[in-house]
Design goal:
The protein is 31% helix and 21% strand. By secondary structure, it is α+β, with helices and mostly antiparallel strands.
Amino acid sequence: MAAVNTEMLIDVWRRILVNPRASWVLFEQGTCVVLTAPDGELAGQATAILREFGPVHAGSSAGDFGAIELKDAEGWVVTGHHNDVLTYVGPDEVGDPSELTVGLCGRSKRHRDGTDLRVVHVEDGRDPAPRA
């Protein structure tokens, strides 16, 4: 598997997220947790979500995935059993671009992120506090 390039991942997520004002947290392997109700410290909130919904558990919905080919970037987003936990898979990470291969790659990356829990970037889309 190719080395993860954090700056490239940040650029990809900025391009593919529909809401440019979204708050999101990026983890080391490319998993992004979009915070639909950001509150307080974003990295902690996202880490709690990924700790619960990142690891793969055989025979449960935690093993489910879907692969979406991107239009605004090369590669795919792999979905899972939480709508706001998404993992990017680049075209150089898989030899076979089938949905199964891409999905398994993304699921594996999500599992690593869900167990290692290493935040590499926080995008705070909340409006800044009003000035007094």
